Give the backbone structure.
Amino acid sequence: MSRQLVLLCYLCLSSPTFATGLTFWESSPNNTALAAANGAIALDSSVLALAPSSITQLNTKNISVAVASYKVTTDYNMFGEKNQYSKANPIPSFFVSTPLANNFYGGLSIYSRNAADISIPEGGFTFPLFPGIDIPITISKQTRVMPILVSTAPTLAYRFGNFSVASTLEYIHAQYELETKTSLMDGTTNGWSGAFSATWQLDNINFAYKHQLDSNFDDKNVAFALPSQNIFYISLMPTKSWTINTAYSETKWKEKGVFYTDYTDPFGLIKGSKHSRRLAFSTSYQLNNLRFMAGYSEDEAIDTFGGIDKRYRLGIAYKINSNWDISMSWLKERYAHKEAKLEDSTLVSVQNNGKALSLGVNYQFN
């Protein structure tokens, strides 16, 4: 009985959180394959999702359309009970950019930069109060939470010499669900955000920076508190065919996230306890009409246990003619393993793994 009492006190006094963040970086096949580190160089109009000021490198109207099939598998071990959940969702995106007049450029992006679809099993244990009398202790109920946010963001950029700046206004449409065994609550709400960015082009190296503003909006069922973000990009071009990219970012996730009125989020899957830093590297090589891409990124988990979420990426693009390009990318991700133990006993263990396949088409006007 003493061991069960210690277990109960541990669960009441501790705060086991297993969040990995809601940021979704996979906005197009090129951005996925290049680990979203390519904000300083514009391969197509999907650079709007990274550093909008870089659209000034595109001298003609450019349209990019893509869809990503994204699947996450979660393995739970809760007090000896093992469960596995797997969710797959198609995530489309659309980007367009065009030169205007007098060194001005315009862009429009429709994509998702924050999303989650998480299932949590029912879990708990029995506490022996007296001989023959056990009290069931429920830690979590079977629940599915699904906040999906879609951004529609117009951009205005201006170029003077080798330096460009851009301002972006973002309208965020949020669709959410909270599903249990006995109920389903869903709805929509919306809010606003924005971003400022700058790009500096030199002979063989480009620099870019983006500041994403935070955003807070809610309705009677849910509150969205989206973090601010600072991202730095560097792209090095050793040759005309070869590009090396790197990016560093910090996202202010502490005390931010998605907060449902009727859901306590016992494992902290959709809220942050600390900020997250991200480091990404990628490279691409152009061989005739083919472009080969590879990338790698590491994100700090935003929960109290910490850890590093790792993502591995590959991609290829083919230039059909002077107007059309097609691209494809593959992503494999392994989230940091989360585990709460008491002595030699595992109380709760969570392991997330994901994969994505992206397909895209780009049209460049003459």
Q: What stands out?
A: DSSP finds two helices and 21 strands in the chain. Helices lie at 2-13, 29-33. The first helix runs from residue 2 to 13. Confidence is low (pLDDT under 50) at residues 1-20.
